[in-house]
Write a structure and sequence with these properties.
- Helix 2 crosses helix 5, helix 5 runs antiparallel to helix 7 and helix 7 crosses helix 9.
- By secondary structure, the protein is an alpha+beta fold.
- The protein has three domains: 131 residues, no CATH class; 200 residues, no CATH class; 109 residues, Immunoglobulin-like, CATH 2.60.40.10.
- The strands form five sheets. Strands 8, 9, 10, 12 and 14 form a five-stranded antiparallel sheet that branches.
- It has 17 helices and 16 strands.
- One of its GO terms (molecular function) is metal ion binding.
- Pfam families: Fer4_18, Fer4_5, FixG_C.
- InterPro entries: 4Fe4S_Fe-S-bd (IPR017896), 4Fe4S_Fe_S_CS (IPR017900), Cyt_c_oxidase_cbb3_FixG (IPR014116), Electron_Trans/Redox (IPR051684), FixG_C (IPR032879), Ig-like_fold (IPR013783).
- This is Cytochrome c oxidase accessory protein CcoG.
Length: 496
């Protein structure tokens, strides 16, 4: 390959010339086309600590996704026993001991905000580490690639198979691969719908074709999208569809840790056999032997030696590949490593490298994560399991009775978030001598079923001559007759 060895400035490495730059995907071929055609990427298998870490994370995350719907959690009689359940019929979200109602959607919003700030924090500390290890697209793509390698072989075998004419062997391999891919995609969609209904029951209904049509439709949609995105589009999703690569530039700086080619050590690139001779002659020779192993193992086809690029997902596989080559050559590992751009410049100037994890932007994001997380935990720990709301009659606002007393009509709504039936006593403050009669509760006990909402019709009477304004503040309070838990609501008593 024709190259020009330069002493790179910050963020630059070897420059590729002419057609070689087009082949490497740096610029389109010189044909007048605005965009380069997509090159099919065949990532080569690699071993190393980052590849092992990715396998562990893949097993853990997929295990959680596929198995959590089958975990049980006893919430008492009449309550669902699935540990994690989104019950759309009742409008409930169950997460082990936590139960959220539609009125508590603020917790869901808080969780989304917390996830966003956590992602910002991760990006400021270590770039697209989320994309490289935890993103669902990455996890399922890794799984699909593992199936592909198992059936069709590693990179060179797959390239040869692509170029080979169709034969029984090629057809069999392709059918087997795509069948397994579709099976994984189908179970991915099937696992998702299990979060919305009792998992064992829904599995039986799906198998006997008694499940609701919406369940089959959701599984079909997720099967198609998973098969397409993880099996065929792969790096296209990370490069073009996902907005995160375009956002991360605003969240990182020169002290952000990222997969970095240490050009201060690697340049100028030269073959291993020639490097020793050049060094003995006192001429510069970098540790990079231009073997391109870092490129062929990259799932997005990035040449990390060209500097940090938008398609790079920071997965660290190029680190494992480069370390393996350096070990075979008897050279120190870490030519490609998690490092910072600032450190490359420090080493070029003869200064010691420094990792600055604590700096203004990381501190800000950490405080935001802690603040939102702490607020949500406090809210969950102190939230009430009883709520009371009052709706005043609009027409008429009040009625003047024959004896001179004033009557207001009210609708009380009591929410009981506990899994047991409860009874409440009603008290009213704000108007002297006010009497409240609740329809259907002559003894004054307001009974509400377990995990339920109950409405009561109430009539409030103010005696004749009571000191009333046109709108007098009114406080209504309910008290659990067993536990003493209270809830209150405010309204106004209307008068002439």
């Amino acid at each position: 390959m024709d190259t020009v060895d330069t002493a790179p400035q910050r963020g630059t490495t070897t420059l590729l010339v002419g057609r070689e730059r087009a082949v490497a995907g740096v610029v389109p071929p010189e044909t007048g086309a605005l965009y380069a055609a997509r090159r099919k990427i065949h990532p080569q298998g690699v071993r190393g600590r980052f590849r092992t870490l990715k396998w562990v994370i893949l097993a853990v995350t997929l295990g959680i996704y596929y198995l959590v719907p089958f975990l049980r959690w006893d919430r008492g009689p009449g309550a669902p026993s699935q540990a994690v359940l989104i019950d759309l019929d009742k409008g409930r979200f169950y997460f082990f001991f936590i139960e959220l109602w539609p009125q508590e959607v603020t917790y869901v919003m808080g969780l989304l905000i917390l996830a966003a700030f956590t992602l910002f924090f991760m990006n400021a500390v270590a770039g697209r580490v989320w994309c490289g290890y935890l993103c669902p697209q990455t996890v399922w793509t890794d799984l699909f690639l593992a199936v592909e390698r198992l059936i069709e072989g590693d990179r060179r075998a797959r390239i040869r198979l692509d170029a080979a004419p169709w034969s029984l062997e090629k057809l069999t391999a392709r059918i087997l691969k795509h069948a397994i891919w579709i099976g994984i995609a189908w179970w991915t969609g099937g696992a998702w719908v299990l979060y919305f209904a009792d998992a064992p029951t829904l599995v039986r209904d799906l198998a006997t074709f008694q499940a609701p049509p919406v369940a089959y439709a959701a599984i079909l949609i997720l099967t198609v999208t998973t098969y397409t995105l993880a099996g065929h589009m792969r790096e296209q999703v990370c490069t073009y569809m996902c907005p995160w690569p375009r956002i991360q530039g605003a969240l990182t700086d020169e002290d952000s840790v990222a997969v970095t080619y240490r050009y201060d050590r690697g340049e100028p690139r030269i073959a291993a056999k020639k490097a020793q001779g050049l060094r003995e002659a006192g001429r510069p020779a970098g540790d990079c032997v231009d073997c391109r192993q870092c490129v062929v193992v990259c799932p997005t086809g990035v040449d990390i030696r060209e500097g940090l690029q938008m398609p790079c997902i920071q997965c660290g596989l190029c680190v494992d590949a480069c370390n393996a080559v350096m070990t075979k050559l008897g050279r120190p590992t870490g030519l490609i490593a998690y490092d910072t751009e600032a450190n490359c410049e420090r080493r070029r100037r003869g200064e010691a490298p420094v990792i600055r994890l604590v700096r203004p932007r990381t501190l800000l994001y950490a405080l935001l994560v802690a603040g939102v997380g702490g607020t949500m935990l406090y809210g969950l720990a102190t939230r009430s399991f009883t709520t009371l709301s009052v709706l005043h009659d609009r027409n008429p606002l009040f009625v003047t009775l024959a004896d001179g007393s004033i009557r207001n009509g009210l609708t009380l709504r009591i929410v009981n978030k506990r899994p047991v039936a409860r009874s409440f006593a009603l008290a009213v403050e704000g108007v002297s001598g006010l009497r409240v009669d609740v329809v259907g509760a002559p003894d004054g006990r307001l009974a509400v079923g377990p995990d339920a909402t109950q409405e009561f019709r109430a009539l409030a009477f103010a005696p004749a001559g009571a000191p009333l304004d046109k709108s007098t503040p009114l406080v209504l309070r309910i008290t659990d007759l067993e536990s003493g838990e209270t809830a209150r609501a405010q309204d106004h008593f209307k008068a002439p």
